[in-house]
Each structure stands twice: as C-alpha cells, then as structure tokens.
Amino acid sequence: MRPFTFFERFSNAFHDYPSLSRILVVSTISGGGLIVYSEANASYSNNGVETETRKKKVVLLGTGWAGASFLKTLNNSSYEVQVISPRNYFAFTPLLPSVTCGTVEARSVVEPIRNIGRKNVEMSFLEAECVKIDPRSKKVYCRSKQGVNSNGKREFDVDYDYLVIATGAQSNTFNIPGVEENCHFLKEVEDAQRIRSTVIDSFEKVSLPGLNEEERKRMLHFVVVGGGPTGVEFASELHDFVNEDLVKLYPKAKNLVQITLLEAADHILTMFDKRITEFAEEKFTRDGIDVKLGSMVVKVNDKEISAKTKGGEVSTIPYGMIVWSTGIGTRPVIKDFMKQIGQGNRRALATDEWLRVEGCDNIYALGDCATINQRKVMEDIAAIFKKADKENSGTLTMKEFQEVMGDICDRYPQVQLYLKSKGMHGITDLLKEAQAENGSNKSVELDIEELKSALCQVDSQVKLLPATGQVAAQQGTYLAKCFDRMEVCEKNPEGPIRIRGEGRHRFRPFRYRHLGQFAPLGGEQTAAQLPGDWVSIGHSSQWLWYSVYASKQVSWRTRVLVVSDWMRRFIFGRDSSRI
After folding, report:
1. Residues 512-540: tens digit of each pLDDT
2. What is the 3-state composition of the chain as percent helix, strand, coil, each rounded to the nearest 5?
3. Alpha-carbon gap, residue 352 to 475, rounded angstroms
4. Are 352 and 359 in contact (CB under 8 A)?
5. Mean pLDDT of 43-58
6. CA 577/CA 579 separation, integer angstroms
7. How far apart are CA 355 and CA 344, in angstroms?
8. In whole angstroms, how far apart are CA 284 and each of 291, 292, 339, 432, 482?
9. Residues whose CB falls within 8 Å of the CB of residue 193, separated by 6 or more in sequence, listed in order
10. Chain CA centroid to CA 423, Å
11. Taking all residues of the chain, what is their mean pLDDT, rounded to a whole number?
12. Rounded Cα–Cα distance for residues 552 and 78 (Å)
C-alpha cells in the first residue's frame, strides 16, 4: 500500500499544481542523467483554468532607417511585430552614390530585414506594399509583391494593436512635365544600379561607329538636378569614376564627357556652413563640373532639359542621362491616410512630440513621412501660468516658476534653444531681462503679462527637423525604448507635467541630437560639419568619413563588405562591367 500511497500523492500533486505537468525529464545514456525543467508560458487563474496571455501586435510599415532602428532596439517580448514592406532588406542609403559608380557594390550596403532585431521579440515579415490604412477598424490593406496567393488574390489585410508608419517618402517631381518618364532618381538600391548601367551604356554607345560628334557629346552629357548632399555627392562620384577609371578604357571619350549640376537656389549645399558651400563650388569649378545656380527646370523630354533662370530666360540643354535629386514628396498611401484623419492640407503626417499621429492614439509615424508639430509656448502661456501659480494669487514668485521650469524646458525645446542663442544660463535670466525692458522694479514676482513679454520670442526657435537618415534612426530608437517601457510608465510616468491636464506624460518627448553631417566632394576630399560649429575640409575629413560610415553599418557583415570594397577600389579601381 505504501507504493500506491506514494503514486496517489504524486497524482494529487499534479492535479493541485498543473504547472508541474510542464516538467520534462530527459535521461541521457552518456554522462549520467540530465534533468531539464521547462516552465510553461501560459498563465493560470485561481480556479486552475489555463489562460493564454495574448501578445500585442505591432505592425511596422517600412524597412528604412526608422523601421530598422525600431526593430534593432525593441527588446520587449510582450509584442508580436509584423513588418510589411515591398523590400525585404535595409539599405544604407548614404552610400547609394558610391553604388552608382562601383565604388561600393550594391549587396555590400544591404542587410536582410530578418537578420535585424532581437531574438526574444517575435518578428515576421511580409513582402508587400501597404495601399490603405484604416484607423477605425485597425487594419492595413496590402498588395503582395509576389503575385497571387493560393486563393488567387494579391491583396490582403492585417490587424494591429499598434501601427508604426515608417514608409519614408518618394522623390518630388513638382509635377514638371517629363521628369517621371525621363529622369533617374536616387532613393533605392535599384535606382543606383540602373544609373550605373546607364553610365556604362552611354560609353559603350559612343564607341559604336556611325555617330557624329554632336550626338556623342549629347550622350556623354550627364545632368544632375539638385544641389543638396545627394546630388553633390553623386556628381563628385561620377567625376572620379570618369576621370580615374573610364577614360583609361574609353580614351576617345575623354574630351566628350561633361557633367552639369542644376540648382534652383543661389548656392549648393545650403544646409551646410558657408565655408563648405564656397569650397564645394570652387572645387567643382576646378574639376570642370558646370554648376548652374538659380536654374529651375521647367520641362524635360527624351533628349533635352529646359531650365529657366531667375531673370526669366529659358535655356535648353541636350543630355544623355539625368539624375533627379531635388527633395522628397508624400507617398500616395500616406496622402490617403492624411485625408481620412483631417490632415489633407499638409505635406507630411503631423505627430506630437512623442511621435504619435495627431488624432490617433495607437498610430505612430517616423522618418521622412512625418513631421513633429511642436506646440508653441504662447499657445499655452495661460495654462503655464495657471499651472505654476499654485496659490492662485495672480502672480508668480521665482520659486514657483523654478519648480516648473524643468518641465517647461522638457515640454518646449525651443525655450532652451532660445536661451542658448541669447547666451543665457536659465529662464530666470530671461525673466529678469524682460522686467528690465518693461521698466519694472519687481524682482520677486511677475504677472502673466510679464511672463508673456519674457517668452514672446521663444517660439521663433521652432524648426522642422531635416529629412535625413540620422533623424529617422534616432526616432526609431526612441520609439522602441518607449514601447519597451510602456507598462512601467503607465504606472509611473516619467515625462513632464501636463500643462493642460493633470498628472504627467508617460515619456519624455523626442529630442533630436545632431551628430554632424558630411559632404564628399570627390578626389578623396570631404567636407565635415560637426557639433559646435566645427568645420573640416580635405583629406583628413575623408578618412573620418570612412571610419564613421563603416561604424554606422547595421551588421558586421556589411561593415566588412564595405571596407573590403573600399580597399578593392584603392588597389584595382572601380569595376566598369555592365552586369
């Protein structure tokens, strides 16, 4: 009876404690016995009934800088991430101009999206294009890039709990006739590959007999529209490719090649320091790159491009290839979504400082497809005063104001920017200056009018963030960290006080930290503008560019491939094969 009693107790133990059924005993012959305890993922209620904990589904649209950064940082296993994008890889876009000329190979700058992300986060990928977002039913409608499915359909829908929109933007043609049909763009890896093939084709065509001199010159005239970083870097890469590699293989074409850069503004690289702009224009002139400033393209056909100067004169330029790099525009799916939520008159999705789409609690937007709608201090000045005036006396003491000063600086970043521009150490200095200008002798208290007078110029520092990979990557990292701490911050908010409500915001607002920018100018020379107004131009900056771009690769695989491509180019030159 004793063995029976033992087994009876053992059976009762399993009945009373169902989690014991998850114990797995694995015996191995060699090395004795091995006992492995496997704990169930399911949770149990008090009455012993098993209940599955459903993971919240996050749908991520896009695999660019914002999307890849979000995936790489997210580290919370309570989410199920569904990635939807027409491309199944992340591309290091700053090196696309190098891909166009064979300095770097296309596969060296891409990383499969399935390789990105934490192993403890459940992630799946669908190669499809999102064609519609329905915020009411919490669905996204997609069109497969792989043809029809087993049911004979190409379109399908996906439910979500949270939606992260990181679709990026498309090239902006400004509705100029002929641009879409006749110009190359430089937004994707496929664009860079097509440009590379077109350049090689142009040199091969002029080598054929039967062409006159004028036609040969036209076919070897490469026009770049847009004097921003992408256009300037491509023009310099193409110049180096032609003069260092192609003229050796096509010696008869040496005196026929011409590169023209068209820019509508008065200078190229207008977002850089003036010293960099001047150096770039002078270097391009020395290199023989024809920079036409103040030239606005009005029409493009299959052989000629028409540009109008600020004086109203229209000139026609024959060309062999045009690369269009003039800015970004909104994708159709984003335009449709903006109309649904009442943002149809905007150029990009408006979000709050926490990257949440305005009017949508569970939808976030990052990168080039969105812009942060920073609240103005003067819009909330009355609420700020009321929040600080805890005694409802109608005046603020310096002590009362200092108690909310940190929250105000967190909520309104333009305050700190304004103080920095004025060389002030804190808001107290700003208030004292305003009182002095108004002829007030009070130094202890101030009323709402004095507060308005002190902060009236602060909103002049509100600026839109640039549409760069650096901004998108920081936004993706920020939002992933917010998702990681979502449950904790619901209970213990860590953000600034709510000016127009009670309590605190869950998180601190997003803050962009500018880490500098580069402009490769060819000939192993690069212009670098780093924080603190530090400017460097020349060969030393080129080596800094190499080290920074190598370190910013998303994996060791791409890092090794890119560095090896640079070494190969140094030793053997660029490959001119058309593959």
Report:
1. 999 999 999 999 999 999 998 899 999 99
2. 40, 25, 35
3. 12
4. no
5. 63
6. 6
7. 18
8. 7, 11, 44, 50, 45
9. 99, 106
10. 32
11. 88
12. 29
